[in-house]
Specification:
By secondary structure, the protein is mostly helical. It has two domains: about 30 residues; about 200 residues, no CATH class. About 90% of the residues lie in helices and about 0% in strands. It contains ten helices and no strands. The longest helix has about 35 residues. It is globular. The chain starts with a helix and ends with a helix. The relative contact order is 0.07. The site of protoporphyrin IX containing FE (HEM) has 24 residues, from helix 2, helix 3, helix 5, helix 6 and helix 7.
Length: about 240
């Protein structure tokens, strides 16, 4: 009986040790996989950066250099447009840096400083966006913009809280969500340029504007959720089965 128990214990120890070895042996192969993944991250970041510069240029040209596009009232409109742009700039240009793994590893102080500028910038830009969207002239866009602003605020604050708590995987997921919404600047205008293909079935101009406004954040957020939450969960279930 006792001999049987000893044998079982030895067997269990052997299984645990072989599992541990397999896990460690697998680590270098897994780490090698990160190089192509990083390359894809950089390709994505470069493409998004180019699109951001292009659409920002167009948005600034339209709103700040076209007479009559800012409204006559400084307090009601112009102040909000300028604050929104000023605080959104560090978000747009700081965010791509945060996804560069080498920078995070070699200069964590830069990652932290840019992160703080991102959080402050995104929070103020989101609040000003909520005001501008809620008081905007297109009724069909108001709820969509206010919701985007609230979600942007929530994702940003959640990312910050998780960084402070050192929950880095959750921090990363919320940063990706926050940046996806910040890029509404790009998605909205990209969809405007492609609207004859994307929204060809909506003939009424007002309905088309409202559809575009909703699609500009719901679709990118769905793609991102599929990538960062749903796909890994499905993979985990397959591995467990
Ligand atoms: C870093 C990201 C962002 C940048 C650089 C940015 C920049 C700008 C610029 C340059 C404008 C003036 C051009 C225009 O009115 O069409 C603008 C307007 C506006 N933005 Fe943003 N934005 C960003 C993110 C967002 C987000 C996430 C929202 C939604 C919550 C938003 C909501 C608005 C609204 C409502 C207006 C006024 C539109 C109007 O009055 O017709 N922005 N933004």
């Amino acid at each position: 009986m006792i001999a049987g128990r000893r044998k079982a214990r030895r067997l269990l120890a052997a299984v645990v040790s072989s599992n541990t070895q397999v896990r460690y042996a697998a680590t270098p192969t897994h780490m090698n996989d990160t190089a192509p993944r990083q390359r894809w991250t950089y390709i994505w970041l470069a493409a998004i950066f180019v699109l951001s510069v292009y659409y920002l240029y167009r948005a600034i040209n339209y709103r700040y250099f076209t007479p009559a596009q800012q409204g006559p009232d400084f307090v009601a409109k112009q102040f909000w447009y300028y604050s929104h742009l000023l605080f959104a700039l560090p978000v747009l240009f700081g965010a791509p840096l945060q996804f560069i793994a080498e920078l995070r590893q070699r200069a964590p102080h830069i990652h932290r400083a840019v992160g703080k500028a991102y959080v402050i910038g995104a929070c103020v830009a989101a609040l000003t966006a909520i005001y501008l969207g809620g008081t905007g002239q297109y009724e069909g866009s108001r709820l969509s913009i206010v919701l985007t602003g609230l979600l942007w605020l929530f994702f940003t604050l959640a990312a910050w809280r998780q960084a402070v708590a050192k929950n880095y995987a959750t921090h990363r997921a919320f940063m990706i969500r926050s940046y996806t919404l910040a890029l509404v600047l790009v998605w909205l205008r990209l969809m405007y340029d492609l609207q004859d293909y994307l929204f060809f079935y909506v003939e009424n101009a007002d309905l088309r504007d409202a559809t575009r406004e909703w699609a500009s954040w719901v679709l990118p957020l769905l793609v991102v959720e599929f990538w960062i939450s749903w796909r890994p969960q499905l993979g985990a279930r397959k591995r467990a089965a």
